[in-house]
Write a sequence for this structure.
C-alpha cells in the first residue's frame, strides 16, 4: 500500500474524525505518524464535548480529602519499605560477615 | 584458622553488601588497632553493636536501600512521549532527576515530604478519576491511586522526561488499574458481584444536579462502555490529553482512540441530549 503523497485536507480529517470505522488505512497510517495532521485533528476537536465533560466530572468526582489520605498512605508505604530495607540489610550483613570470617579466599571453609 | 581483616573482604560478598561490609570492616579494623586486640575478639561479643554503628555511619541511600525494589509493573517510562520531550518533576526539577538518590541504585528514594506532597496534590485527582473509570469502585480506585503513586515515586529516578509527567503517571495508573481489575475478576466469579459505579454516583449526583434521571442514564451508559472506551473518553474530555498522548498512554493505535472516542461520545451524548 502506497502512503499518501499529500497531507489530507481539513475536510478529509474532519470526515475521518466523524467516521466510526477505520476503513481508510492510508489515512489511519498517515495521521498516526504525521505531526502536522495530528495538530490539525487537535484543532478540529478542540472543544470536545462539554456536556460529557461536565457529567463525567460529576460522576468521577474524587472525595474531598483524597490527596490527604493518599499522601498519608503513600508515606506510610514508602517508610515501611525503608524499614524493611534496614532489617534485610542487618540480617544479610550478619550472614555475610560470618561467611567472611569462616571461608578462605576461594570460598572454602579452611578449618 | 587465621583471620585477616582488610578493606577487601576475604570472600567478596555480592554488591551492594560489599559496600556495607567494607564500612563495617573498616570500623572493626580501626577499633582493633586502637585497643591492640584481635579483630575477631572484638567482633564476636559486640557484633550487633558494630552492625548498628556501621550502618548509621553509612550514607543513607546505601544503608537503607531495599535489595531490589520492584519497578513500576508494565510501565514504559518512554511511553506517552510528547513532542516537546521535556517535563518537570513535582518540584520543578528536571523530571528525569532522582528525588534523592542515585540513578543506578534502584532503591527506594528518601521521602521528601514536600516533593511527595506536591506530586500527590497535583496529580491525585487525575489519577483517581482514571482509576475509577476502569475499576468502577471508589475504594478500589483509591487503592489503585495509592499503588500508582508508590510505583511512580520509586520509578521517578528512571523517568527520562520524554513524556509529560502527567502522561507517565496516567499510564502507570491505567496499567495498575487494569491489572487490579484482572486480579479482582479472577477472584470474583459472579459478574453481578463486580462493583458498579452507580451507588457512589447516585450519592454525588443527588447533591449536585437536579436531573437525577438523566444522570442515572448517563451512569448506565458509561457502564455499558468497555474499559478502554471509558479510559479514552475520560482522558480526552476530563484530562484534556491529545489523541497522540492517549494513544501512547493506553498503548493503542490512534485510529482506535478516534473510533472508540467517537462511539463513546455518541452513546453518552444521546443520554445527555435532554440535559443540555
Amino acid at each position: 500500500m502506497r502512503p499518501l503523497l499529500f497531507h489530507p485536507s481539513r475536510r478529509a480529517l474532519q470526515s475521518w474524525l466523524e467516521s466510526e470505522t477505520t476503513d481508510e488505512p492510508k489515512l489511519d497510517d498517515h495521521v498516526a505518524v504525521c505531526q502536522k495532521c495530528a495538530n490539525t485533528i487537535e484543532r478540529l476537536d478542540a472543544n470536545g464535548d462539554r456536556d460529557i465533560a461536565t457529567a463525567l466530572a460529576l460522576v468521577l468526582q474524587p472525595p474531598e480529602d483524597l490527596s490527604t489520605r493518599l499522601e498519608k498512605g503513600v508515606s506510610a508505604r514508602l517508610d515501611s519499605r525503608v524499614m524493611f530495607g534496614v532489617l534485610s540489610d542487618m540480617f544479610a550483613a550478619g550472614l555475610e560477615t560470618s561467611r567472611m570470617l569462616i571461608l578462605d579466599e576461594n570460598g572454602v571453609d579452611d578449618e | 584458622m587465621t583471620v585477616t581483616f582488610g578493606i577487601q573482604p576475604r570472600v567478596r560478598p555480592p554488591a551492594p553488601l560489599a559496600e556495607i561490609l567494607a564500612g563495617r570492616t573498616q570500623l572493626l579494623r580501626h577499633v582493633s588497632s586502637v585497643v591492640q586486640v584481635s579483630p575477631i575478639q572484638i567482633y564476636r561479643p559486640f557484633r550487633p553493636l558494630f552492625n548498628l554503628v556501621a550502618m548509621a555511619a553509612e550514607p543513607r541511600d546505601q544503608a537503607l536501600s531495599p535489595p531490589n525494589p520492584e519497578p513500576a509493573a508494565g510501565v514504559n517510562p518512554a511511553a506517552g512521549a510528547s513532542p516537546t520531550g521535556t517535563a518537570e518533576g513535582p518540584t520543578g526539577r528536571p523530571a528525569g532527576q532522582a528525588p534523592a538518590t542515585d540513578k543506578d541504585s534502584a532503591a527506594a528514594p528518601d521521602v521528601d515530604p514536600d516533593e511527595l506532597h506536591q506530586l500527590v496534590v497535583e496529580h491525585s485527582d487525575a489519577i483517581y478519576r482514571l482509576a475509577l473509570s476502569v475499576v468502577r469502585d471508589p475504594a478500589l480506585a483509591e487503592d489503585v491511586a495509592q499503588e500508582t503513586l508508590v510505583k511512580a515515586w520509586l520509578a521517578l529516578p528512571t523517568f527520562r522526561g520524554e513524556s509529560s509527567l502527567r502522561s507517565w503517571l496516567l499510564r502507570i495508573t491505567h496499567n495498575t488499574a487494569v491489572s487490579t481489575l484482572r486480579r479482582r475478576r479472577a477472584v470474583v466469579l459472579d459478574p453481578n458481584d463486580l462493583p458498579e459505579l452507580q451507588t457512589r454516583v447516585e450519592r454525588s449526583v443527588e447533591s449536585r444536579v437536579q436531573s437525577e434521571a438523566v444522570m442515572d442514564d448517563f451512569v448506565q451508559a458509561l457502564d455499558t462502555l468497555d474499559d478502554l472506551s471509558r479510559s479514552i473518553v475520560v482522558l480526552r474530555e476530563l484530562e484534556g490529553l491529545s489523541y497522540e498522548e492517549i494513544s501512547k498512554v493506553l498503548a493503542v493505535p490512534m485510529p482506535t482512540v478516534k473510533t472508540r472516542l467517537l462511539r463513546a461520545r455518541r452513546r453518552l451524548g444521546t443520554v445527555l441530549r435532554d440535559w443540555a
